[in-house]
Write a structure and sequence with these properties.
141 residues; two-stranded antiparallel ribbon; alpha+beta; single chain; 4 helices; 6 strands; Alpha-Beta Plaits
Length: 141
């Protein structure tokens, strides 16, 4: 139940914060994905959904540990989490939160980030679905 609520809340956050112009950028497989151009100096979120080959789940989680630990130490990273679907353990979602677009750019420029795609390419069933959104305003309740 908590996972469904979390997914619902993130979906609502994505929908409500989808403002600004979009720019096409390339991922490691050469397929384009949309990057949200922030309005002013908004916070940014990255949502990356992955479907991992069932026999590669353990290898994937071990490989993900390094990028998670290093990303959390980046000055502009506010949060970096990996969640696993409790109903299908081969499905994962990275939920990342950054101070601003400059922090996202620094993350993408990091060597460990650039190495992660090729490292897990044999583990995933299809290329990751990645959304980058600008967070217009945070409401703490």
């Amino acid at each position: 139940m908590k996972v469904k609520l979390l997914v619902l809340l993130f979906s609502l956050a994505l929908i409500s914060s989808s403002y600004g112009s979009k720019t096409l950028i390339e991922n490691t497989e050469g397929k384009g994905y949309l990057k949200q151009s922030p309005v002013a100096d908004n916070g940014m979120m990255i949502i990356a959904k992955l479907s991992v080959k069932p026999e590669k789940v353990k290898a994937f989680t071990e490989a993900a540990r390094e990028i998670i630990e290093k990303s959390k130490k980046e000055p502009g990273c506010k949060s970096y989490q990996l969640y696993q679907d409790p109903y299908d353990n081969s499905k994962f979602i990275f939920v990342e939160e950054y101070k601003n677009q400059a922090a996202v750019d620094a993350h993408f420029a990091a060597g460990y980030f650039k190495a992660f795609g090729p490292k897990i390419s044999d583990f995933v069933q299809v290329p990751a679905k990645i959304k980058i959104v600008s967070v217009a305003k945070e409401v703490n309740q």
